[in-house]
């Protein structure tokens, strides 16, 4: 499960800073030292949520929740959050809730649910446009996902048509819910990565193939371009809905298995690798870093930062901000008591820290056939990658103004890497 709710209240944490600055990029790692400060999510401003607090990366401070809130699970770039409120405080019965425009609102229950008989809605995600809240619901012994529309105030529970359990961990502006669905497997059940569209249809990925290994087997996150990440048969994957492309990756050397947990709009993916029994280390993937995921601590080490945790590991990376600059997670140990950490990558991954802004301009975007490039310096080469890291075009130039014929590319989102006089600039395009 991507995010798990715990009910042990921690005291306000005191933080310390592990930080380093390199000549090419300002990269920082901040670790919270008190127990129970693990992060659940982070946005483009470095505003994060732990289970019981808000957090600001710039000031390195934790802030308590509003009195009407109990716990928080997700945050978007508008600062709206999804979490929990009390339904019956004396009996400690919670209900799903959300803060929108500074006001907390209760989601409540469907008529079929009986919160006094342990039926519940567990919040996990909020869409970037704040319209949708999602999570897992229970009605008696039936478990499924839920989708709440903050505009229409409609709450629906999405049970698997075949009667098996399911859950939803994230939702995007298109109302696509991602998570897993159980399927019978010999002596028990087997989780299958699945997503649900607004028409009510469930879709398994990869299409026509069920996992063979018991594991998490889930879609953990989806970005604004309908690109999903998760794990399948103990390997991390990226699935691009627009091109119907499923790409599986290897766990880093020394790890037994791995999973992706979150993806940015620019294709930065984070997660964790199992390196020993109940011991994890955070991983990161982006085409500019290579063809396979790397341990995040190694990327930080290359930029002068040493992870000084008790075991030298970062544990679990659970969230990357939509702009790919902030990563949040927690150190190894029992999750209810784990210490949280957050990394600021600046433009390390996309390479724009080595080049002045607006050095390369391009149009149109979205593009149908011809992409025009204009640069202040002569362009040496242009490479185009899918969001899964596959190079589809590599062209050499020696001129300031260039044109690329993209008519042969499939519809979808691509990363463009422009090399000019030893510098690299990357940007994202949408192919129509």
Automatic annotation (TrEMBL):
InterPro entries xrefs: Secre_tail (IPR026444)
Keywords in alphabetical order: Signal
Keyword Signal appears in the UniProt entry: yes
Domain of life the protein comes from: Bacteria
Signal sequence bounds: 1-25
Ranges where the Secretion system C-terminal sorting domain occurs: 363-425
NCBIfam families listed in its UniProt record: Por_Secre_tail
The protein's name in its UniProt record: T9SS type A sorting domain-containing protein
High-level lineage: Bacteria, Pseudomonadati, Bacteroidota, Flavobacteriia, Flavobacteriales
